[in-house]
Amino acid sequence: MLTTVETTNIKKLEEGSIVTPKGFLASGVHAGLRHTKKDLGVLMCEVPASCGAVYTQSHFQAAPLKVTQQSIATENKLQALIVNSACANACTGEQGLLDAYKMRELTAKHLGIAEHLIAVSSTGVIGELLQMDKIAAGINLLKPKDSQEAAHDFQTAILTTDTVMKNACYQTEIDGKVVTFGGAAKGSGMIHPNMATMLAYITTDANIASDTLQTATKQVTDVSFNQITVDGETSTNDTVLVMASGLAENNPLSPEHPEWNKFIAALQLIFEDLAKQIARDGEGATKLVEVKVKGALSEKDARIVAKRIVGSNLVKTAIYGADANWGRIIQAIGQTSVTVNPDNVDVSIGSIEMLKKSQPVVFSEDLAREYLSGSDVVIEVDLHLGDGEGIAWGCDLTYDYVKINASYRT
User: Fold this and answer.
1) With 50 as the cut, is the pLDDT of residue 221 above it?
2) What is the domain count for the chain?
3) Catalytic site residue 163?
């Protein structure tokens, strides 16, 4: 987990974006896959970039993921990403795979770079074939630039049921060089990742080899994107992709580098930022819920408990109704496989203590209701067994979630 010391020299750039790191350009257009909104985007690097990626663990991995994995395996580098919304190109058989490869081919030709340096992503409805005539025409309209407007267009193009864009930018100094991290993500429903989230793309100009970046990406994903849940559902297309241009010209990063922890801290900050934005924008959500667990036998155990609490429908509905029913938190903890001493657990909602050593504490229902009526809710649990700590993020469960998903295709 991050410490204050590790993050002291990392600053957030409120006006930054996915193209703020040196060497990155983006574009987004309306290709006609959606009625009016932008639906096709490209992210490009001026040079072949080191990369790291993690994907959904669903048995039904969508065709674009297979193409991206093949691209990365060729040279362990990427230079561009082509992504569409409106159609997931998942469960589409051989034709879907051919279409994903065609997207890669057309993008390579348009940008003038090798096919194996291109990643492919799709998001939207499962089981429908891409409208390749519109995809082909749209690719020819893409004009990558390093402007904030271009970044905005790309970020808009990847959205589906999202109500807002998710983006973040952080900056630090390594070896006396300014190193920047930019990110864009999408995700609102079908969020209970076994790897990452719906789609998340992170750029950096740090100098780091692909194998090292892959290890870092997996490590940081486990404590960020893997710790969010909206509805307990895992997508066929979940992807987290990190590209590093190396143009910051710092000394090559590795765990042996004296400022390695600073790099990891910055990467974790931007991952967490994007993850929390996704949780806050959960379909129909009105509140961001953060669960902090300490006193577990291990960090893994703490993360399991935290995610189980934030993913409980009973907890989520209680929070929506501003009902301080701590019994629902206890039942969620009780369902986990981790070691728990049922006679020594503390539970607080906000600053209001409700359970101490597994004994009820008298509290003001009015104050609890007032706190739970806010837009941010924090639940804290102490298992009193060890030093393990973990955090998870989610949202409340509302009537609107049902409305959105009852008519997703219509």
Assistant:
1) yes
2) 2
3) no
